[in-house]
Amino acid sequence: MITSNSIVTNISCFNLLTPAEGSVKLSFESSLTLKDVESQNKGVAEGEYEPSDCTARQSVAVLIPHRSRERHLLYLLNHLHPFLQRQQLHYAIYVIQQVHRLHASPNKYKLA
């Protein structure tokens, strides 16, 4: 928001976007922890982020089915948050635990 002569105007994030330059380095450090991911993404609260310097034109929900792969989830979140923030999106990430149904074939899972 910009204030000028007591008039408040919202700036669209679309006007503030800069072209993505260069490649993003992916790293898969075995020492990565949830606290590391949280400290690198201070603007994220309970899986939700909204740009503070502009009004996002879009809101996105990301659903992640998850089952017993905590290390993979950390790597995904570590790279997904900066990727979405770079696009100036309002987003929320939902991690959904997959549950195995009794007496079902091994490939049939449902989201709980």
Basic shape: globular
Sheet with most strands: 4 strands, mixed
Overall pLDDT confidence:
79
Radius of gyration: 18 Å
Number of helices: 3
What is the number of strand segments?
A: 6
Q: State the order of secondary-structure elements, H for helix, E for strand.
A: EEHHEEHEE
Residue stretches low in confidence (pLDDT < 50, at least 5 long) are: 1-8
Pfam family, one: Glyco_transf_7N
Protein name: Beta-1,4-galactosyltransferase 4
Domain Galactosyltransferase N-terminal: 17-101
GO biological process, one term: carbohydrate metabolic process
Task: Record keyword descriptors for this entry.
disordered N terminus, single chain, globular, 27% strand, transferase, four-stranded mixed sheet, two-stranded antiparallel ribbon, alpha+beta, 112 residues
Describe this structure in words.
The protein is 25% helix and 27% strand. It has one domain (2-15, 32-111). The protein has three helices and six strands, in the order ββααββαββ. The protein has helices at residues 13-16, 34-40, 70-86; strands at 2-4, 7-9, 48-49, 59-66, 90-100, 109-111. The protein starts with a strand and ends with a strand. Mean pLDDT is 79; it is low at 1-8. Strands 3, 4, 5 and 6 form a four-stranded mixed β-sheet that branches. Strands 1-2 form a two-stranded antiparallel ribbon. With 112 residues, the chain is an alpha+beta fold. Residues 17-101 form the Galactosyltransferase N-terminal domain. InterPro entries: Galactosyl_T, Galactosyl_T_N, Nucleotide-diphossugar_trans. It holds the Pfam family Glyco_transf_7N. This is Beta-1,4-galactosyltransferase 4.
